[in-house]
Amino acid sequence: MKKEYICPPGKKSKVVIEDLSVKFKDNPTLILGFAGIGLLGPIIGNTLVEQIKDLKEIGFITSEMLPPISTFYDGVLKHPFRLYYSQKYNIILGIAEVPFQLPSAYSDLAKTICNWALSDDINIQDVILFQGIPTGGMIEEFKVYYASEHELIKELEEAGIKKVEKGIIVGPEATIINEALTNRLEILILFTPVYQIPTPEGAASLINILNKKFKMNINTSALLEEGKEIKEKMLELAEKTQELQSKQLSEGTKDGYSQYYQ
User: Fold this and answer.
1) pTM reported for the whole predicted model
2) Cα first-last separation, the chain
3) In the chain, where are the structural domains located?
4) What percentage of the chain reaches a pLDDT higher than 90?
5) 34: alpha, beta or left? (left if phi > 0; alpha if psi -120 to 50)
6) Considering the domain 3-218 in this protein, what is its CATH number?
């Protein structure tokens, strides 16, 4: 038996809970990981799934505007936007592994998620989101920053997380925030620098914040090692590119200029 929550306005997306045997504690926290720049959301989400023993898959979120992409792990087909629940930490985790095709899809999706989060039998209060800050060159330190509503600011400052003074949030995270600002959901969005490619080191920094907040012990050493390997490959590529450009410039000085000045 499945239970569906469909947003009244668009009805283009829905939350499907497949496991109705799950008993939610009061006021669970919803953590949403979207496939944005740096792929922070899926990296964080899948790391939590691997290490939190009681994080159980309970359903999925779907939309008519999902791209035609499916995913599978170890030969098992998986929905691209899955929902999990850990009773131990009282967190609901949503992992969206594919970006939506149209920006307009996110508005309908945000209404559906918030409508479900506010329903009597789930009664979510806090929502946590992640967003990468695109950064050029090598990133030496993956600091974490936040933006939130007033109720959460004191807690975050005491944890040593610095606020982002001002900026623009884009993508699905923005639509969730804008929808939540009209209701009683409290939003926390965490930022860290990222490359234009998957950034496991940034994900590790964000997981460290989740470890403190929920008193978890998620090991991030594998992510840090993976990030180190990616950085080494990027440096190697940059060196080769620089060598190639120097060679082309040298050859151009010798041959190219002489073609114009004969």
Assistant:
1) 0.85
2) 83
3) 3-218, 220-262
4) 45
5) beta
6) 3.40.50.10900
